[in-house]
Amino acid sequence: MPDMNANQSVEVITIGGAAGLSGALTLARARRSVMVIDSGEPRNAPASGVHGFLSRDGTPPRDLVARGQEEVARYGGSVVPGRVVSAEHVDGLFEVTTEAGKRYSARRLLVTGLTDELHEVPGLAERWGRDVLHCPYCHGWEIREQPLGVLGRGPMSVHQVLVFRQSTSRITLFPADRVEVTDDQREQLTARGIDVVEGVVAAVEVDKDRLTGIRLASGRVVEVTAVALSPRMRAGKVLLSLGLAPVEHPMGVGEHIEADATGRTAVPGVWVAGNATDLAAQVVGAAAAGNVSAAAINADLVAEDTSIAVAALRRAQEGRGRAESQEL
To answer: pTM to 2 decimals?
Structure first.
């Protein structure tokens, strides 16, 4: 796969994820020089497969990324391994710096992705994406009719457990001290046959690499084979270095970067796509958003290229006019 040397400048750099690869593919097909900088650690890497992606359902996340990289390279784009740690605007270009100290520059940036912050419960992180889950549309089919525990966190917890009830009737909500369940909500949960277990969750129980239960601080263990939770989601630090401060999402599940329908941010020349701005986007939605952002970026570059060409034409015409007047 083609690589690019540090300090090389391209028209567009996209940073990571399905959204970044999708944007890069669209831009490369539009004959833009484009570079994808990817850490090789997609957010969904622990999952066994990507779901809800038409024609690609069940594809392992890293296989999907590899196919995307091959497609970008097919049209002349470049994929550079690395983790971007900062970006800045220098002399009309965006200069990004990787963890390894390499620098690349571009006229436009497309930034994607986010970081998940899990509950501080021992054992959760090690099983994240396997039998510790967050999305009923990504994983609901795989845990159908299994005993599921939902760890409360924030105002969306009751909604989350009600949606997961479509996947399994064997479901328990652990609100702990993070969630206040109203009387109306308790009535809804009771009507749907959802148990509510109070108490502090101390850890998850695992036996032979299989999740077997949720242990409370009281010592009680509730049998479950899967756990659902709502991680707190945060936009990457790269955006902070560009002067883009994340804001609290209206759903109360984390932070995101505000942008218009194409992903254009308040910083001219910087777009965001996928989970950086849309916390609920699945892989297929993130890929679609990358495509939309890429078209907007290309249109923005076309407008700038045209403006530069018109200015050059006018200078040339003025030069010819002066030369003709001198001959007279």
So the answer is: 0.90
